[in-house]
Amino acid sequence: MDAFLTPDEVAARQKVRDYFREGKALAEGAPSGPRGSNPLGSFLKELGFPGPSAAGDKGRAASLLVKALVIEESSSASPRLGRELVPSPGGAIRSVSHAEEEAAEIAWKMGAAAAVLRACLKAAGEQGFFASTLMDHQKVQMTLGDILSGLEAARLQSYRAFRLIDGGDESRGAEELRRAAGLAARAHGEAMGMASALLGTRWLSENMPDNERSR
After folding, report:
1. Is the Cα dihedral 143, 214, 102, 92 positive or negative?
2. What's the angle, vertex CA 141, arms to CA 139 and CA 145, rounded to 5?
């Protein structure tokens, strides 16, 4: 998927990955993420990105695509933590455009689906009977492959939509965003279905936000 990102966007995503690789913001027993009146803005600044758009902000605002990459990678590292960066009526992030709200939701679903898929792949390679594992079964391989393909399709579509909106083509961007939302929701739903079968309620309770555990 790097082929569809600029070098600066690839570097931005890697910066987030390095941040979590070092174990930051993932203190044991603390499901909460970046703090502040605007968690996403605080997180961007902590990582060294330009701040969010705001009156009097002298720094260049991070693009919609970069913000989405931050949420996607954060959610991939920890779905519960990444959820805190998604705007919600009762949450800390409220004053955002419809496009930013949609982009954040899409990014979270893609990141959470990636986290679930990794856990499912690990479980399928470990669980089984006698000398074979679940990963040895063609049906399991095909199901996991379909989820991965769906996730990649959602990423391609969403990055296209984000770039159109960042470029000022809001009409086409909104249309592409609707398609991206459908693909992301499908990939996330399929990943959660597989999680219910392979990972069980304990994993879901420990790793997913409350409203996602019963899916």
Report:
1. negative
2. 115
Residue reference for tokens 């391609």: 156
For helices 98-126 and 138-166, what crossing angle results, to 10°? 160
Q: What's at 90, amino acid-wise?
A: G
Look at residues 165, 212, 171 and name the one whose alpha carbon lies nearest to residue 192: 212
DSSP at 26: -
Model pTM? 0.83
CB 63 within 8 A of CB 166: yes
Rg for the chain, CA atoms, rounded = 18
- Collect all residues with Cβ–Cβ distance below 8 Å to 28 and sequence separation of at least 6: none
Convert the pLDDT of each residue in 72-103 to its tens digit: 999 999 898 888 888 765 444 555 688 889 99
Determine the 3-state secondary structure of 133 from DSSP: strand
**What's residue 185's pLDDT?**
96
DSSP letter for 2, please.
G
- Alpha-carbon distance of 199 to 210, in angstroms, equals 16
pLDDT digits over 31-63, tens only? 444 554 567 777 777 777 766 553 334 446 788
Distance of CA 63 to the CA centre of its chain: 16
